Hints:
mainly alpha; 0% strand
Amino acid sequence: xxxxxxxxxxxxxxxxxxxxxxxxxxxxxxxxxxxxxxxxxxxxxxxxxxxxxxxxxxxxxxxxxxxxxxxxxxxxxxxxxxxxxxxxxxxxxxxxxxxxxxxxxxxxxxxxxxxxxxxxxxxxxxxxxxxxxxxxxxxxxxxxxxxxxxxxxxxxxxxxxxxxxxxxxxxxxxxxxxxxxxxxxxxxxxxxxxxxxxxxxxxxxxxxxxxxxxxxxxxxxxxxxxxxxxxxxxxxxx
Length: 238
């Protein structure tokens, strides 16, 4: 059996799975769990199913988009509830050195521009979990969080579907290759967005930290200068 035959079987298997009725609840469940247990490949699955929809007409793309967006929104709000219930200290993934740094960043981010950070953090796998859990832990208003997370997950879902549709349009005759290109392309774009978001948000957080940690000017040199000014011109008598 040559490579082309194996790839043909894999392609047929994936396309057959994408046409199954259970793909919609599976997409919902994966996106929901990805909201508080990172990193699961929910974005890659959205891209793959979007490619299949573009090249074969199945699954029904609006259904996949709805399942992904609603699932991601539910997952983000579960993360918020976890943070409000138990905080960040009891979660192993947030007790690592990287996790603790993300929590500190999330606290500063939420205190400065919470809405924009909730939206931007959706593209940072561990970052979005840290932000969502921290939002619950620090008492960020739940009504605001619900609304902003809905916007964040909708934009994220449209982005993933757009990547898949673009790859499918370019490589319509080769669905498996289109899926691979879409996933790789989505990963690259995601890494770039991750880097930009981290730079922007860490820069804002570091500036805040620098302002908070700026030491007060020492008073000793001032006192010494005053003593020198009060000293007689002839110096200290022997």
